[in-house]
Amino acid sequence: MQDSECVQFLQNVLPRLQMRWPGFRKVRKQVCKRIGRRLRELELADTTAYTDYLAAHPDEWQRLDALCRISISRFYRDRGVFDTLRDTVLPDLAAAAQRRGDNALRVWSAGCASGEEPYTLQLLWHLDLAQKFSELGLCITATDADEHLLDRARRGVYPRGCLKELPPAWISEAFEPTGDGLQIRPVYREGVAFVRQDIRETAPDGPFDLILCRYLAFTYFDEALQRSVLDRLLAHLRSGGYLVIGKQESLPDMTPDLDVLDRRLPIYRWTGQAATEAA
Predict the structure, then answer these.
(1) Taking the model in full, what pTM does it have?
(2) Which ranges of the chain does DSSP label H, i.e. alpha helix?
(3) Nearest-CA neighbor of 275 among 199, 193, 192, 203?
(4) What is the pLDDT of residues 61-84, one digit of tens each?
(5) What's the CA gap between 201 and 125, in Å, rounded?
(6) What does the alpha-carbon distance between residue 5 and residue 7 come to, in Å, rounded to a whole number?
(7) What is the pLDDT of residues 190-204, one digit of tens each?
(8) Residue from 252, 221, 242 nearest 85 by CA
(9) Signed CA dihedral, 37, 40, 45, 47: sign only
(10) Residues whose CB is less than 8 angstroms from the CB of residue 94 and which lie 6 or more positions away in sequence, other chains included
């Protein structure tokens, strides 16, 4: 399948999925490869035939939606963001939790893919901050719509290239060699719950002190769906909690009660009240 054919097909079908083409421009090869494989499975000649197939088989739209999920990730992605989480955000949240008398910080990693993001938070906490807040735990709920990715996350095995931005001492401490890469040690997998959920439809029980939704909703979803997802995120974020999005992402216009922590970074502090708190 030619690139131009796939681009035209995506530009036609993405609005039906409430997604937007600009988010896919740089990663389209991953999606086009999957679509090409699906055409072969269905013995279809081209995307024109696939368009006809979609019209005749409405359930296929769900399969196409799955083909359009992007799963690019790595540990410590966007170093400045994680450095700020370590130096500012997590200590601030930990101090607030202690004042409330809580025994753990609650974090939601939305669109966690293969687990690199929640495990990075685990390493930040256990290898850098836990001694400073010894009476406080870290509980992470990591959600994704793809059960295959979640299975990989639970196993916790990664190629060395995914870990290249981690400090070498962390790799030595937290990972052990296995047949097909490096596996995060069991002690660092504890406290992370991987749950299959589609952020477009539902969310885990809150409130959360910190929510990360990076390189998902605010890259690939259209504006109306972005607004819906943002409302869902904020409904589960504790007042005074933090929302983190992708470094190249921006929030929908007219978002009240969110204060940017640093204009160079996509980290926001929520000054409203979570619906789960009000309940």
Answers:
(1) 0.94
(2) 3-13, 28-42, 47-56, 60-67, 79-84, 90-100, 116-124, 147-155, 168-174, 186-189, 217-220, 223-235, 275-278
(3) 203
(4) 999 999 999 988 899 999 999 999
(5) 30
(6) 6
(7) 999 999 999 999 999
(8) 242
(9) negative
(10) 105, 129, 132, 133, 136
